[in-house]
Amino acid sequence: MSETFRERALALDAADPLADRRKLFALDDGVYLDGNSLGALPVHVPARVQDVLTRQWGELRIRSWDESGWWTAPERIGDRIAPLVGAAAGQIVVSDSTSVNVFKAVVAATRLAALAGEGRDEILVDATTFPTDGYIAASAARLTGHRIVPVDPADVTEALGDRTAAVLLNQVDFRTGRLHDLPALTAAVHAAGAIAVWDLCHSAGALPVGLDEHGVDLAVGCTYKYLNGGPGSPAYLYVAERHQAAFDSPLPGWNSHADPFGMTPDYAPADGSVRGRVGTPDIVSMLTLEAALDVWDGVSVDAVRAKSLALTDFFLECVAAYAPEGRVTSVTPVAHAERGSQVALRCAEAEPVMRRLIERGVVGDLRRPDVLRFGFTPLYVGFADAERAARVLAEVLEETPAG
Question: What residues are annotated to the active site?
Answer without folding.
Answer: 130, 199, 224-225, 373
